[in-house]
Amino acid sequence: LPDVWSPKPLRGKKILLTAGATFEAIDPVRGITNISSGQMGMALARACRAAGAEVTLIYGQIQTALPPGLVHTEQAVSAEAMYRAVHRHIAAQDVFIAVAAVADYKVKNSSSRKLKKDGTGQPPQIELAENPDILASVAALPQPPFCVGFAAESDNVLEYARAKRLKKNIPMLVANQVSLAMGKPTNQITIIDAQQETAFPESSKPQAAAQIVARLAELLGA
Ligand code: CTP
Ligand code: CA
Predict the structure, then answer these.
(1) Is 0.85 exceeded by the ipTM?
(2) What is the CATH number of the domain that holds 35?
(3) What is the pTM assigned to this prediction?
(4) Burial 100-129 (b: 16+ CB within 10 A, else e)
(5) 149: Cβ below 6 Å to ligand 1?
């Protein structure tokens, strides 16, 4: 699959992506995050741009460089900050691709001061509250962009992924096994949409991104 597309199948399309891990503060120095590195999101942002799209990227914590040539990039570290950033930019978009590993819960009783051990040996209680589902909220807009989700699962990958696509009411979802994808430079994806399910062999994340762009372009053209 191409690195340089000719003709460019996403020419002129406005695409917003989320990428990386969110971080939910416990106190000013501690928090809850996950093992997403941002590599898949960056590879996909780069591939969308290479295919001619105007790319906006909202990212959390990443362990990789931002690709060049994007229209707008913005860091939004907590799930709520990412939700707000996405909704500030979503109206103009043709496509939304949710690659970020978003925390499902935030810390309800986060502290503005660093927590101290109180000397009793009793651990502090961390209370959680549910975060908004960014992808589901975008898919539920009155005139949603074409939405692409990801599902990283440890088990029952395809079964959970199919259900996730239907539950979030999105046309396209990329499924993968956590252990073959998250934090790694490679991935093994299955693209699930209303017409077909395509399982690809293990590849680099840039190659996986090109496979996703190719199917996205087909579905947008159809
Ligand atoms: N997602 C999102 N906002 C959230 C949670 C998830 O935008 N608060 C997006 C992710 O970016 C991904 C898709 O939804 O594209 C699926 O995320 P996942 O965590 O696999 O699904 P959940 O619906 O959170 O279900 P669960 O974690 O229980 O499997
Ligand atoms: Ca989740």
Answers:
(1) yes
(2) 3.40.50.10300
(3) 0.97
(4) bbbbeebbeebeeeeeeeeeeeeeeeeeee
(5) yes
